[in-house]
Amino acid sequence: MDRELLRWALDAQKNSYAPYSQKHIGAAMLMDNGRIYNGCNVENASYGGTVCAERVAIFKAISEGAKKIKEVLVVSSEQNPWPPCGFCRQVMAEFIDSPEVKIHLCNPQGHGRQLTFGELFPDSFGPEHLKKT
Ligand code: ZN
What we know:
Blueprint: H1 2-13, E1 25-31, E2 36-40, H2 53-63, E3 69-76, H3 86-95, E4 102-106, E5 112-116, H4 117-120
Parallel strand pairs: 3-4
Antiparallel strand pairs: 1-2, 1-3, 4-5
Residues 52, 54, 84-85, 87-88 line the site of zinc ion (ZN).
């Protein structure tokens, strides 16, 4: 599956809008409905308006009815792949299927590392903390 996720992430990375950082990122998420959703980073002259590739992919998936993230792949233009930022980790925590979900961090050649969401974002704050008892 990660080869297919890489293909989807690379497809999205081609559309990266990064005139300020020149850093082109693509993300792909396998969701619980069996579909893959991708996204790229979209920067803005008002920097706070910038959205990372991971959140673009998640918001596309959720807006189309998917509920849970089953696997993630992020490709960056760096040889040493970049991990998701803290903001994206928090948004992933909202929709992650379990702490065992695989997160693949890749360079454009598809090389990099794999970790679980629990390793990426241990002791995360999530929806379970706000459940009424
Ligand atoms: Zn981010």
